[in-house]
Write a structure and sequence with these properties.
two-stranded antiparallel sheet, alpha+beta, 12% strand, three-stranded antiparallel β-sheet, 188 residues
């Protein structure tokens, strides 16, 4: 009888009660922090997503991966996939991380001042929707050329979407890529 009672209390009543309370207290967050455009969800402000076109700001690399179909001893990166949240767990000196970063850099010329760290490394969850303001600034020339927009307008847009460190203490300043790209689409 106690097993049935605690199963109903802890497995049904408690989760439903907490979910209901969250829906009343913080409804946007309880609903997944969805970002809407024309009333339709286009993403979440808490989960990163890939933007492959050159006229959009790009996110940092995703840590989600799958076995390489050509070589099962290796993995290949996947686009952001919330069902597969994971960190790479690679040390800064790990050969796999160094090889991945070298592959991402390719043979291109590094931007003035070098690459921003978050252009080459994934976040702890592998699904971070934010990039550093430095990362966004390094993408201005590409996005401006693709959209035929004055780079100064893009830098101002980045500044408008810049968020400070959490509570002024945790992490650094950041820019949400989805919200930045939606604002970019709204620019005339």
């Amino acid at each position: 009888m106690l097993v049935v009672l605690f199963t109903v209390l802890c497995g049904l009543a408690l989760p439903l009660g907490i979910t209901g309370l969250a829906g009343l207290v913080v409804p946007v967050q309880a609903g997944g922090s969805l970002v809407l455009r024309d009333g339709q969800p286009v993403g979440s402000s808490l989960i990163g997503q890939s933007f492959a076109r050159p006229d959009y700001f790009q996110t940092r690399p995703s840590a989600t991966s799958a076995p390489d179909p050509k070589d099962s001893s290796k993995t290949v990166p996947l686009p952001y996939n919330a069902a597969n949240s994971s960190a790479s767990n690679l040390a800064p000196t790990a050969k796999a991380l160094i090889d991945r970063v070298k592959a991402q850099i390719g043979t291109g010329t590094a931007p003035e001042g070098g690459y921003a760290q978050d252009q080459m490394t994934s976040s702890g969850s592998g699904l971070d929707p934010d990039i550093s303001p430095e990362n966004a600034a390094q993408q201005v020339a590409r996005v401006a050329a693709a959209r035929k927009i004055d780079p100064a307008r893009l830098r101002a847009l980045i500044d408008e979407h810049r968020q400070p460190a959490l509570l002024g203490l945790f992490g650094g300043a950041r820019v949400n890529v989805l919200e930045l790209n939606l604002a970019l689409d709204r620019m005339k």
